[in-house]
Amino acid sequence: MEDRLLHILLVDDDEIDVMNVQRAFKRNNILNPLFVARNGLEALELLRGNGPQAIPKERRLVLLDLNMPKMNGLEFLREVRNDPDLHTLTVVVLTTSADERDKVEAYNLNVAGYIVKPVTFLAFVEAMAALNKYWSISELP
Question: Considering only CA atoms, which of 65, 13, 52, 55 is closest in space to residue 34?
Fold first, then answer.
């Protein structure tokens, strides 16, 4: 079972959204390790093995907000796709932005999905359950 765990990096600067993801994981019995970065720069540090907590290099998934300080989600995606060690990373956008330009640019940067954050917690729990079902049947590297 240990070899099926995903190492999930949540990149989001909103403390309430971070807590909602953690609560939704708990409610859905999602046992994958969850790492948190507050912006794209912190996320890159964690993914590259720099900083206080290194994320294992195998079976990684990033849940990415777009609207963040220092380095936003689209800037992070551009950096990841240009990095030879990270370019194959699986990224799912999880954001409040329903802007069509953001969606198009994210998909042009090869995201695996684009989820607009639900307004209610129950809808958020359901979205995390659906995402968990998807990654449990997907063959992520």
Answer: 55
